[in-house]
Design goal:
Chain lengths: 154, 763, 247
């Protein structure tokens, strides 16, 4: 079936299978930041933002995404660079495979929770798996991003 | 300059911003989709297999079975050649030895067609009785490999007729005599589980023929050079016709230190002439790659009344599953990377059998035996202290290895063969131990604090060592090229799998060349374009590959000086990274490199460095945790985990820190909940992230790592390894903390609340 | 799961019509289970365009549309505490933005952290065809007549709380327990591992062991029945301490 998907504010006319998941469609459209992790919506690595909500694209039907605003890290541009610089400042991206979805999750988190506490940050991101880092560096990086990039202090 | 600076990883920003960098991102869009039909039985023989219906589908381009692929024996293990692992499998075999073993390979134009074709392959099986219990596998009437042509490249104790993939024994001094002369003897039995790597990027490989009809393989591997060799030998394909390279890798931890889908995509491409890609499902990652060797470890410790450790005796039964990848070497590391911790003993015994069973194979995984051995030895040390009525810290301090000491074990036990004698020139274990005790405030918290009537807080501790590469086996090499305008290309065989080794190696080069790290572009691990390296394993990259980079860079400095002398016509010049000086004259590197490229005595400066270790200097650490446990349920939470680490110089302190934090959390997962269970018929239960639980960011209150100042003379700028040591201590630390809280010794991993609850009920 | 076609009806009536007339249909709520099941169906009926994602507040009840996501419940200020708490540890924010309360109830999943608090809260269900039914009755019912869940009617409880024990923060519960008090005290225990069961008006003079005695606990690969019972007793003891503070 032919549908129109709005990805990072750009419309794509695309033919999809009725049971095709957004992960596969987005990658087909060239949004390679969206990664396959687990097939069972448990790891968070395929997460994208749809209408400002974080969702697992591996389990989100492409046909359902018609008429919605899909956001991947490619569409975050300057904000992705700032968050990315905060993560790489710690070296915590390591293999990098979970990083694009983490950047999107940090983005939706900061849209939803304006000044989240450390507990709120950890709770919000608990579903975002990372096997390399031990997570401590994520939290140092997010703190830095909020303090320096968002509040302009220091 | 470069070393000991927390600079950003060169690839970091691009990866976080989602640039195409991994195998799936850069594979040809038109590649055939490859999928594998997998055995539903733990042990079976294919009676008949009919692929006609699948092949009749127009979208299907190729079906592979044991009938149309080369029958050469191989080991998947990516190790130095000849490998210390048995050649005990084929690309595809008529005999299927575990649930998930490959039956047939299908390649077609799109996923749906390939999935349909898999269902259309008709197979009849002769179902055999499997061997599932590793404790009864040795000399079991059922043989996993019965006269099926397995062989060893050299003596690894391979006896398939006894279900032994490998076996080993050694003794230093007289163990029984030392035990009989000990005042106090502790004997204990410990079990460790088959942990899964759970790297975020599933295994993936893509093959295509280039315009010269050479086979190119893009693959998510830790060992491109080993993969090239195995493809060549297994598929009877001349080496010169194969190029293997790895793009960015989404994590490995040992799980990609082997050949996985590469043989299948290579065959599909060779047979069809078309590009082909095989992207493992998560279930296949769990079920059909490999996991950690589960072990049963019997420990006997003997000591005199004053706490002098006299003897350590270790007997291990290791479960390698259906195939013997890394069977011998993981077994040996369980001894060689733990026993030297207590080097003053009179006698050491170490024996082990690695048995075949009909389950998912075991293979390389960070820690590689050391984590299993550490759990047993460091749990046993606390028990021995208990029996002696002695503080476990005092017992450790009295017996543990110190700087400028040695252990006979270094000389006797290597990896798959004898080791190399070595004096430990850097060992700050004593400082690590003191530091961790102080930071956790041990004296106020040991052994426990009762918070309320059912909540207890307690502390536990363990020490550990690892190695830095495999001496006289692991070779790394590097090439440096000076370009016009004073910029360098560094090409290395070392495989950056996310650790940041490309960046670290550039830092080492920059330090020698006295230039900013930015002036060095790195390209790594491509069998056509970079020099050889064994790959990313055995904690070798910083030490082995790092030394090769240092050598290449030192040679480059000499080359720069040589052309400087020629330029000025003098006998002596100096160089400071920016300029070459001859008396009062000077020329910048930018200018000189441009001159020799375009106009004056033109030549290309390029140097190569290779390095093989003559020793494997161990990093050391002390780990300690504070836990809170509910004695009604056995439920516990790790409040904080402190680690004090001696890894020599940290080339990049940030990346070393993340290696430690990540390693510790993987160790905590192994200690606490990462569990591997099979049904009675041998099917893996924990084959998805629904069932296999890795730690989230909520599991531990705080992980707090500190590096203790240390300098390893044989390392590049004083560095040792840091990649594996982090994973070693958590299992024993957690077990010791639980003992300190509740008085029960948990001897089986993972330490589940239910098991603690049961142990308490039974006391 | 694979399907050959998907329809996206604009009303519940259309969805219901498709459900009873199409061959081999499946209703898609959140869709979280699509990747988890290996089966082929002909028609998928997607409920996301039927307007079932609204929350309607009345003085006595909170009416939750079947397509309201778990994350919406977690972050909604008026939701009873037990229900909000129960959402927090389900996999992750992304999954909770996908999975719907209706889908969670219709699955009658034994592991569910969603059903247990709803049961303790005396939730009623409204179906398109069958009309209203208590969640308690629905869970025990063997009726497999196809129908579409429209909304859940959750009474505003004066007090409620949710307790569970997990191996990791986002794992399934080894056992879960919800307790709610309006006029009466209701205790629900789930992940036994069977679907949640209700204890109405328990005699609080009895011990947790005695109160839980009528319930069955069984073994699975996560925990033994014996251990589950011990956990439930602990959770109940903690819960009753909290109940003692409720006025």
């Amino acid at each position: 079936m032919e549908i129109v998907l709005t990805v990072n504010k750009k419309d794509h006319h695309v033919i999809v299978e009725p049971d095709e998941m957004l992960l596969d469609t987005l990658r087909r459209l060239g949004y390679k930041s969206v990664k396959k992790g687990c097939d069972t919506s448990n790891c968070g690595i395929c997460s994208v933002s749809i209408d400002h909500k974080l969702v697992p694209s591996c389990s989100y039907l492409s046909v359902r995404a018609q008429g919605k605003d899909i956001l991947t890290v490619e569409g975050l541009e300057e904000e992705a660079r700032l968050i990315g610089e905060s993560l790489t400042r710690e070296g915590v991206e390591q293999c990098g495979y979970c990083s694009p979805s983490l950047v999107v999750a940090i983005h939706t988190m900061l849209e939803e929770l304006k000044q989240p506490t450390e507990d709120e940050i950890k709770h919000y991101l608990a579903g975002n798996m990372c096997r390399c880092s031990g997570f401590e560096g994520h939290h140092r990086a997010i703190k830095h991003h909020m303090e320096v990039n968002l509040n302009g202090s220091q | 300059m470069g070393v000991n600076k927390p600079i950003r990883k060169k690839d970091g920003l691009g990866l976080t911003m989602g640039k195409p960098a991994y195998t799936a991102d850069i594979s040809p869009e038109n590649a055939l989709v490859v999928k594998v039909l997998r055995s539903p039985y733990a042990y079976a023989k294919i009676k008949t297999i009919d692929t006609t219906a699948a092949l009749n589908m127009p979208e299907i381009k190729c079906v592979l079975t044991y009938q149309n692929v080369p029958g050469n024996m191989l080991t998947r293990a990516g190790q130095g050649y000849p490998e210390p692992s048995p050649y005990d499998r084929k690309t595809l075999d008529r005999t299927l030895r575990y649930v998930g073993d490959a039956v047939a390979v299908v390649a077609g134009e799109h996923v749906k067609a390939v999935e349909k074709a898999l269902e259309m392959i008709e197979v009849t099986y002769e179902v055999l009785e499997p061997v599932l219990d590793f404790e009864t596998a040795k000399d079991h009437p059922v043989k996993v490999h019965d006269k099926d042509g397995t062989f060893e490249m050299f003596d690894i104790g391979h006896f398939p007729e006894r279900n032994l993939a490998a076996s080993y024994a050694m003794e230093i001094g007289d163990v029984e005599k030392a035990l009989s002369e000990s005042d106090v003897v502790y004997e204990g039995r410990f079990y460790t589980q088959a942990q899964s790597h759970a790297m975020t990027e599933p295994h993936i490989s893509t093959a295509y023929l280039d315009y010269q009809e050479r086979l190119n393989v893009i693959t998510s591997t830790q060992t491109p050079f080993h993969v090239r060799r195995i493809i060549s030998r297994t598929l009877n394909l001349p080496m010169e016709n194969i190029r293997v390279f790895k793009p960015r890798i989404g994590g490995g931890y040992g799980g990609k230190q082997a050949i996985h889908g590469e043989l299948y995509v290579s065959l599909v491409t060779l047979m069809t002439g078309l590009p082909a890609t095989y992207n493992y499902t998560r279930r296949e990652v769990f079920e059909s790659t490999y996991s950690r060797h589960a072990m049963r470890i019997d420990v006997r410790l003997g000591a005199s009344r004053d706490g002098t450790l006299k003897v350590i005796d270790t007997e291990i039964l290791s479960n390698t599953g259906a195939y013997g990848e890394h069977a011998l070497t993981v077994l040996m590391v369980a001894g060689s990377k733990t026993l030297p911790l207590y080097n003053k003993v009179e006698a050491v015994g170490f024996r082990g059998d690695v048995v075949y069973t009909n389950i998912t194979p075991a293979g390389a995984y960070r820690g590689y035996g050391a984590v299993q051995g550490n759990f047993a030895i460091e749990s046993a040390m606390d028990e021995l202290a208990d029996k002696l009525g002695m503080d476990p810290i005092v017992l450790r301090k009295k017996n543990m290895i110190k700087e400028m000491e040695t252990s006979k074990v270094f000389e006797i036990m290597g990896e798959g063969k004898e080791g190399t004698a070595m004096t430990v020139e850097s060992c700050k274990l004593d400082k690590c131990l003191d530091d961790v005790l102080e930071r956790i405030n041990w004296k106020d918290k040991y052994p426990r604090i009762e918070v309320d009537e059912h909540t207890i807080r307690s502390v536990g501790l363990a020490i550990a060592m690892q190695g830095s590469g495999i001496p006289e086996v692991d070779m790394g090499s590097a090439s440096l090229k000076l370009n016009d305008f004073g910029v360098f290309n560094l090409t290395v065989g070392a495989t950056d799998i996310g650790t940041g080794s490309d960046t670290i190696l550039a830092q080492i080069a920059a330090e020698v060349l006295m230039v900013p790290t930015d002036k060095i572009s790195v390209y790594s691990s491509d069998t056509d374009l970079t020099p050889f390296d064994v790959g990313a394993y055995a904690s070798s990259t910083t030490y082995i590959s790092g030394n090769s980079v240092r050598i290449a860079a030192e040679k480059m400095v000499e080359e720069i000086k040589r052309v400087g002398r020629r330029h000025f016509g003098v006998a002596e010049v100096t160089y400071d990274g920016e300029f070459i000086y001859a008396g009062t004259d000077r020329i910048s590197l930018v200018e000189l490199s441009t001159l020799i490229t375009y106009s004056e005595d033109q030549e290309q400066l390029q140097t190569i460095g290779s390095y093989v270790g003559t020793k494997t200097p161990p990093p050391y650490m002390a780990g300690a945790a504070e836990i809170e446990i509910d004695k009604r349920t056995g439920h516990y939470k790790i409040l904080n985990f402190y680690a004090s680490v001696d890894c020599g110089t940290t080339i990049n302190p940030n990346l070393a820190l993340i290696q430690m934090e990540g390693g510790l959390l993987q160790g905590i997962g192994m200690a606490s909940y990462e569990d591997v269970n099979y049904t009675a018929r041998g099917r893996l239960i924990n084959s998805s992230f629904l069932k296999y639980k890795v730690p989230t960011r909520m599991e531990v209150g705080k992980i707090d790592v500190k590096f203790i100042e240390s300098y390893e003379p044989s390392g590049p700028f004083g560095a040792k390894s840091v990649g594996e040591i982090g994973i070693d201590t958590p299992p024993a630390v957690v077990a010791n903390a639980i003992k300190n809280a509740l008085g029960v010794r948990m001897n089986r991993l993972p330490i589940l609340p239910e098991d603690i609850w049961r142990a308490l009920k039974n006391t | 799961m694979n399907f050959e076609e998907i329809i996206m009806p604009a009303t519940v009536a259309e969805a219901y019509h498709a459900l009873v007339t199409r061959e081999n249909p499946v209703v898609i709520g959140g869709g979280g289970f699509i990747k988890l099941q290996k089966r082929r169906v002909t028609t998928a009926i997607d409920l996301s365009r039927c307007g079932l994602d609204a929350i309607h507040l009345t003085p006595e009840n909170i009416e939750v549309g079947a397509m309201v996501t778990l994350r919406t419940i977690e972050t909604h200020e008026e939701m009873p505490r037990a229900l909000k708490t129960a959402m927090r540890n389900i996999v992750g924010v992304a999954l909770r933005n996908l999975v719907t309360v209706g889908g969670s109830v219709m699955g009658k999943y034994g592991f569910s952290d969603v059903i247990t608090p709803l049961l303790a809260l005396d939730t009623h269900l409204e179906f398109h065809s069958k009309g209203r039914m208590s969640l308690e009755k629905f869970l025990q019912s063997q009726d497999r007549t196809p129908d579409i869940l429209v909304k859940l009617i959750v009474p505003r409880a004066a007090h409620s709380a949710f307790y569970n024990l997990q191996l990791t923060y986002t794992d399934f519960s080894m056992v879960n327990l919800a307790i709610a008090k309006n006029h009466h005290l209701r205790i629900a225990v789930g992940a036994r591992p069977g679907v949640a069961r209700l204890l109405k008006d328990p005699n609080l003079h009895l011990s947790p062991q005695e109160i839980l005695e009528p319930l069955k606990f069984a073994d699975d690969d996560k925990a033994s029945g014996e251990y589950r019972r011990a956990l439930a007793e602990t959770l109940l003891a903690d819960a009753l301490k909290e109940v003692a503070q409720w006025k």
